[in-house]
Write a structure and sequence with these properties.
The complex is a heterodimer of chains A (461) and B (86). With 461 residues, chain A is α+β, with helices and mostly antiparallel strands. Chain A is built from nine helices and twelve strands. In chain A, strands 3, 4, 5, 6, 10, 11 and 12 form a seven-stranded antiparallel β-sheet that branches. The longest helix of chain A is centred in the last third of the chain and has 9 residues. In chain B, helix 1 packs parallel to helix 3. Chain B has one domain. Chain B has three helices and four strands; from the N terminus they run βααβββα. The chains are: A alpha+beta (461), B alpha+beta (86). At the A-B interface, strand 10 and strand 11 of A face strand 2 of B. Chain A: Pfam families: DUF4331. Chain A: It comes from Nocardioides lentus. Chain A: This is DUF4331 domain-containing protein.
Chain lengths: 461, 86
């Protein structure tokens, strides 16, 4: 979660696996939008000597829709290239890496950014540096400064690509043990003692592509909308990863080479959609698809399996949810069309009738400063948070658990009364690496030397 | 991007046949190989050819970042023969 190893095919291809996408008006630069796309889930920081890196064989893209048709009207493309300085060494580095051009770094990586708009491709930068992974205090001293030096300004836009701490929080171990939420263990069909949640992604890293772009570069009319009810105030955002259609292993070298068109293998807009709503037999197809064609998946949003499971897994806790048999227009609005005007006071992020999974960010709504942010976003009365785009510190698991459990049904069906527990649902976790206050808004990655492997609690067995 | 045309087939097909001939040369007669004339706009790089359905005339050629789809039952059968040779 939110999209870590969420589908059978992509779980076999971590370098292309898109784990989270964030899009928000930058609190410290409110004339810009920050978009972050994370890949390569659940990295153990000590995973050397071949540490994690972007794949040279994957085409990473960030898509922005600004015409209400869920098409990629503006695309930023990222292609990576890895150099091996000394193929006769088995080491990632042969001494401290104190600068991005350090000769001690045996495997530096660079990238090319291409902007695609109206069919025109513009290369914004070549040979841009990716910082090394955080190996440890001997190999990557002063890591924070080293990583910051990899930020680049191109076309009025700041870019960063490199390893970051995973800010997400979720209790994977419990949730995928028959839908258990540890704080509610006693109410589960198979009861256990209640306990605090365990954040499964604590101390793990991801690889992030982050950009901070002026709002007047991404909206339909290249301006900064001030009317939040304007249909042009909302942009759709998602990220993808693609590989060549054919991949052949060369037995002579033990390496592979790709040929043919790029074929999309990973997609992510709204968190948890493919992970939780799309059934196993459709997940790979969802990853290969386009948001504009998401009408094919509408049934899984309108009638989610999880909403049917909650009353079974937690007997007598969700009687109202169990009895609700209408299509979930609330979830459809949140995830597939945006919320129209008149549903939430002073808010809308509706992008038209096209069923499409995208983050929808109303850029005319001012950002909430970090100290005032409500992690429950719009549900918590903070209109600058999810599902108005998504901020790093939004409590996605909590928001979506409560939404699926029925908390948001009254927005579209005032006669419905949510079950009492629905508004309390949580997996009991908190981020181990909360977002920061400046670009790229994600903490430095956990270091290999500094990180201890997890422990196994014998628990009930 | 798929591109279905006889011209594309002629351009790319020669290279595809050549590549396959490495492992299935027995199915290609000397005269068939010799009769192919390289065109000016032929592919000059790795080409991957595949037949998705052995009962049809459809042949897919992957070259660079493109996919070329050609329809030639005769060529498909010759490829199938080559693939089946021991």
């Amino acid at each position: 979660m939110s999209s870590h190893r969420e589908a059978p095919e992509i779980s076999q291809d971590p370098a292309a696996d898109n784990t989270d996408v964030y899009a928000f008006v930058s609190p410290d630069k409110p004339d810009t939008v920050t978009i972050i796309a994370n890949f390569l889930p659940l990295q153990q920081p000590y995973g050397g000597p071949n540490f994690y890196e972007f794949s040279d064989d994957v085409r990473y893209r960030i898509h922005i829709s600004n015409q209400g048709t869920a098409q990629g009207d503006l695309i930023y493309e990222f292609l990576f290239e890895t150099t091996v300085r000394n193929p006769d060494s088995f080491l990632y580095n042969t001494g401290p890496i104190e600068t991005l051009d350090s000769e001690n770094w045996n495997r530096p990586q660079t990238y090319t950014i291409t902007k695609i708009e109206n069919g025109r491709r513009s290369v914004l930068g070549r040979g841009l540096p990716v910082p090394p992974v955080n190996v440890g205090p001997r190999s990557t001293p002063n890591y924070g400064e080293l990583a910051r030096s990899a930020r680049r300004l191109r076309n009025r836009t700041w870019f960063f690509a490199g390893q970051r701490a995973d800010a997400f929080n979720v209790d994977l171990g419990s949730i995928f043990d028959l839908g258990a939420l540890r704080p509610f263990n006693e109410a589960h069909l198979i009861p256990m003692a209640a306990m605090d949640g365990v954040n499964s992604v604590q101390a793990t890293n991801v690889h992030s592509i982050a950009m901070q772009v002026p709002i007047d570069m991404i909206t339909r009319f290249k301006n900064q909308p001030t009317n939040r009810f304007s249909p042009h105030a909302t942009v759709g955002v998602w990220a993808t990863a693609s590989r060549r259609q054919s991949r052949m292993q060369d037995p002579a070298t033990g390496t592979s080479v790709g040929t043919g068109p790029w074929v999309q293998v990973s997609r992510l807009g709204n968190p948890l959609v493919n992970e939780v709503l799309i059934p196993m037999g459709q997940k790979d197809r969802w990853n290969a698809g386009r948001p504009a064609a998401d009408a094919a998946f509408r049934e899984y949003v309108d009638s989610p399996e999880l909403a049917r499971l909650l009353p079974v897994l937690y007997p007598d806790v969700f009687p109202n949810l169990a009895a609700y048999d209408k299509p979930r227009a609330d979830l459809n609005a949140i995830l597939h069309t945006g919320i129209p005007r008149g549903v939430v006071p002073e808010f809308q992020n509706f992008t038209g009738a096209t069923q499409a999974d995208m983050l929808r960010l109303n850029v005319a709504i001012p950002p909430t400063q970090p100290e005032d942010q409500n992690p429950f976003g719009v549900v918590g009365g903070d209109l600058a948070g999810f599902p108005n785009g998504r901020r790093v510190n939004d409590d996605i698991v909590g928001i979506e658990l409560r939404a699926v459990a029925g908390v948001t049904i009254p927005l579209v069906d005032p006669e419905y009364t949510p079950d009492e527990t629905a508004s309390q649902l949580t997996d009991g976790t908190q981020s181990a690496a909360p977002g920061t206050d400046s670009f790229p808004y994600l903490q430095d990655p956990s270091g290999g030397y500094q990180t201890r492997p997890g422990t196994v609690d014998e628990g009930e067995n | 991007m798929s591109d279905t045309s006889r011209r594309s087939f002629i351009a790319a097909g020669g290279v595809g046949v050549g590549a396959l001939a490495i492992t299935g040369a027995g199915a290609f007669t000397a005269s068939a190989s010799a009769s192919a004339t390289p065109s000016a706009d032929r592919a000059k790089e790795r080409v991957v050819a595949f037949v998705p359905d052995h009962t049809t005339d459809e042949l897919h050629l992957l070259v660079d970042e493109r996919e070329v789809v050609v329809h030639d039952r005769d060529l498909v059968v010759r490829l199938l023969n080559a693939a089946g040779s021991r």
